[in-house]
Amino acid sequence: MKIATAAYPLDWLDSWAQYEDKLANWVSEAAGQGAELLVFPEYGAMELSTLDGAGVAGDLERSIHAVSDRMEDVTKLHMRLAKEYNLYILGASAPVDAGFRRPVNRAELFTPDGTHDHQDKQIMTRFEREQWDIAPGGPLKLFDTALGRIGVLICYDSEFPLLGRALCDADLILVPSCTEALSGYWRVRIGAMSRALENQCVTVMASLVGSNDWSEAVDMNTGMGGVFGPPDVGFPETGVLAEGALNRPGWTYAEIDLEAIAHVRADGRVLNRKHWSEQEPRVQSVTNCCLKAFEPLK
Fold this sequence. Notes:
Blueprint lengths: L1 E8 L6 H17 L4 E3 L14 H4 L2 H10 L1 H15 L2 E3 L3 E3 L7 E7 L5 E5 L5 H7 L10 E3 L2 E5 L8 H6 L5 E6 L4 H18 L2 E10 L8 E2 L4 E3 L11 E4 L6 E6 L2 H10 L4 H4 L3 H5 L15
Parallel strand pairs: 1-2, 1-10, 2-3, 8-9, 9-10
Antiparallel strand pairs: 1-14, 3-5, 4-5, 5-6, 7-8, 10-11, 10-12, 12-13
């Protein structure tokens, strides 16, 4: 299969039609390159807050609810595009009022046959919990699709090995991301590459890019698209199948072979996924040791 992962810039929108045109152009471009799965980044839906004006877009709390209020229309648009172009789309995540204590950070996966489902972020960053008060949502899911088994770890979630291990049966783990600084981008990228190593699968990272003076939440964004696998048989020795250019908007494409994933899991030079359970008895029997330095000779 061919995957397209986005380095996606936010725009100031003056009308819903402008957003429809923007998204249709992005999807059309990737479809024209033969992509079967498109991955948009975390909080890419925040540009929808501009439709309610500068006062709303620049206010943390009001922007959350303004975006959430438009997600039903966003879902309909993505469903139509996925069907029209006969592909899968992981839509940009958004804060969504979904019956929890507070809005959750949710990404939806759309299929060519008109079905869709969502994945909520599990663990909030400091900004999300201390300024936005975004809540953890529903549990992790594994999606069975014609492209293989797909999991989603939204940004910070990719930095936690046990969340990745819960998705160890996934062929693809999608990592939509929104990071302000270069260090944040590399934390998520290192997490995505680590999950590919541990699970002997492919991880797909999408990034928000560019500056937006109209928003307090997504005012500065650093990143690029990337597709990673285990540095083992059937994959590049670096583990990097494809990467974009830092902060340059556009798609990054990669060809993925499910047979290569199956082969490396069965007969790789190392078998991280299979040997994971061997850690457990060893970490449970950690022994405390005390090493004292020698007294200096006199």
